[in-house]
Amino acid sequence: MQPRDGQTAEKAPPMVRVEKVSKRFDSVLAVAEVDFTLETGAFLTILGPSGCGKTTLLRMIAGFIEPTAGEIWIHGRPVRDLPPYRRSIGMVFQKLALFPHMTAAQNIAYPLRMRGFPRDEIAGRVERYLRLVRLEGLGGRRIHELSGGQQQRVAIARALVFEPDLLLLDEPLAALDRKLRQEMQLEFRRIQKELGVTTVNVTHDQREALVMSDRVMVMDAGRIQQMAVPETVYHRPENRFVAGFLGLTNFLPGQLLESRAGRARLRVGALTLAGTIADPSILPGTRVEAALRAERLRILEEATGEGWEVVEAEILEVVFEGERLVYSARAEALGEVPLRFVDADPLRHRRHRPGERVRLGWRPSDLMIFRADPEAPTRIGQPEREDNG
Amino acid sequence: MRPLGLRLLDFAETLRAGIFPARLSGWTPYLYLLPATLVTGILAIGLAEMAETSLHVLDRATFRLDPAYTTANYAAIFGKPVYLRIILKTGLAALLVTLLTLLLAFPYAYLLVRTPHPRLRRLLLVALFLPFLLGQVIRAYGWLIVLGKQGLLNAALALVGLGPVSLIYTYGGVVLGLVQYMLPFAVLLLAPALTAIPREVELASESLGASPRRTFRHIVLPLARPGLVAAGVVVFTLTVTDFAMPEIMGGGANDFIANAIYDAFFQLSDPGMGAALGIVLTVFASLIVALAFLLVGVAALGHGAQQDMRAGS
Asked: Per the domain annotation, does A382 fall within a domain?
């Protein structure tokens, strides 16, 4: 089992320890006091919007960027004075960065050659890793003779062949089309599990984060917003940003009335609603926002029993997405903001038309209350840095 | 009544259809090639005539070319140490200039391409182009002012009690002047080749365990090869055919083939010998270029290598 959030196992040192690391570019604080540990064998995905600092953090671990403050430890050893080529880190780059003047096998052999492996061992290992990424027999191909998915496989074999302490993935799947991306997500996961290599992945794709990782770290404005197992990050977001970044979420602005032991009531428009609250420090009277996931809201066809919060609403729009319908509706009692909700089984349900009036319901335990996003806070973050031409 | 403008256009269209019927329009692309083909063709005719001229010796009694065909001019070129020395000196200088220029141009182009500071990039570009705009003759005279007997360099050396050193009218001076002249060409030809190497590829090499020096040797240098060959070929051919720099900086004692050709035509009034020297120079330079392309493939001058790189990224 993976140890939960930040609780360090006593025995071996964690594979990665990032201690209060910050990075400032001129006047921009790209990464602000990021602090976490990662156990050996874990798969961590850093998830966040463009410019949240996730790539900067990854490049600091890789050694391409030096932290302004803080210390990074890999395998119990501070790496401040180690250049990238002395760190035992394999990295797969966004644009793969394969060497076009070499064959697939030569690409994979490169780190072994640079690390002075004996010739016969290089040949054996290259064979083994070609097999691992299912490219048997294609080692002699030039890079441009390989398909996008095959190039991905060469890149990951090259990053792993020297058995590094740590594997870093800098959004290598971002450029793939959806189908191939989903296939490669599972493929990366399989290889990672098979080798047990500690991995840090960076992405802005929430699905990728949830599918691939043991742990997800959500970043925004250079700070960790939440770090936990995927289910916890999705179902129990710690703040409004995390709640909004993952999934399709409705936000209802309101005012906190009372809060006790994780349960709370708030006033939204003319209504008083019950919900859950994670942060006990929010005082009654504070401006809050209630988050309601689209899949937790549903149309109640007939009078339903206990435990449902119900509002009248008018359907505004229906979007067919294949496996589901996405509705948007206006509930006058909750204000003007349209509510979005999904019908996950459109074949069995009647399709409601725009203009129709319906009863929308949800369970109070699905309503999550957060401190309101202080409008336009001092937004710290770096503009996406593209180092490549 | 249609407006006058339209009627004029109609008329022009009818005229065009008469001169160049639509069924010939498939030939249009070839038509566009015609001017360039003509220019090249004229060059070929000139070359043929030059080859013909080179096969006649000068009759020193009449100062006319002897109509009889002979290879005496070529025999003279390859038999007389004067000409052999000039050819050798030209080739050696071209080799030296090419090597030195590439050596200097590579870091310059690399910095130009890789620097994250736009202001530094601008400065590098301006510094590159400023002398580029001056032309070779003016620059050669500039060198005379700096390096001459009473030049800036010797004045500075005299202040510390050294010198005078004689740099002009020497072989080294000619090479120095040529390197300075060729540098912008080489940088401009290298820069696109280096731009085509993604920075990520270098980072990848470092993360895979290669120090910056080994990254340069195993990744940057091989990927920059098309640019290096292109720059090398241009610098070599420009040097091997150069006239002004050896003329001005060499002071008559360090002639290149081009100066010998000039002398044959205008000092000795021997067009046969001049033409023969010209043919030797053309063949010599062509062989070198052919050899370079044979080594790396013709694609080096185009974008073949860059396409490879994009496919790999």
From this structure: no
- Count of domains observed in chain A: 2
A107: Cβ contacts below 8 Å, ≥ 6 apart: A98, A99, A143, A154, A158
Distance CA A98, CA B200 (A): 9
Q: Is residue A5 part of a domain?
A: no
ipTM over 0.90: no
Here the CATH number for the domain that contains residue A123 is: 3.40.50.300
**Chain A residues in contact with B206 (beta carbon < 8 A):** 64, 83-85
Question: Do A258 and A181 share a structural domain?
Answer: no
- Per-residue model confidence as pLDDT tens digits over A42-90: 999 999 999 899 999 999 999 999 999 999 999 989 999 999 999 999 9
Q: Taking CB atoms and an 8 Å limit, are A85 and B200 in contact across chains?
A: no
Same domain, A205 and A256: no
Question: What is the three-class DSSP state of A17?
Answer: strand
Any domain includes A196: yes
CA distances A253 to A368, A369, A381, B243, B302, Å, are 12, 10, 26, 81, 61
Of A84, A87, A99, the CB nearest to B201: A99
Domain that holds residue A359: 248-371
* Architecture label for domain B76-312: Orthogonal Bundle (1.10)
Kindly state whether residues A200 and A314 are assigned to the same domain: no
Best B113, B203, B208 member to test A by mutation, with max A CBs in 10 Å, is: B208
Tokens at residue A66, please?
């030096």
Whether A261 and A231 map to the same domain: the answer is no
pLDDT tens-place string over residues A170-212: 998 887 888 888 888 998 999 999 999 999 999 999 999 999 9
d(CA A36, CA B77): 79
Same domain, A261 and A312: yes
Nearest chain B residue (CA) to A168: B207
Q: Are B293 and B300 in contact (CB under 8 A)?
A: yes
Q: How confident is the model at residue A29 (pLDDT cuts 50, 70, 90)?
A: very high
CB contacts, 8 Å: B198 with chain A:
95, 97, 388-389
Domain of A295: which CATH number? 2.40.50.140
Nearest residue on chain A to B220, judged by CA atoms? Answer: A99
**Cα–Cα nearest to A273, from A284, A262, A264, A283:** A264
Cβ atoms B296, B232 nearer than 8 A: no
Q: Is A386 on the interface with B (CB under 8 A)?
A: no
What is the spatial distance between Cα B313 and Cα B301, in angstroms, rounded to a whole number? 21
Chain B CB contacts of A87 under 8 Å are 207
For the whole prediction, is pTM greater than 0.90? no
Do A174 and A204 lie in one domain? The reply is yes
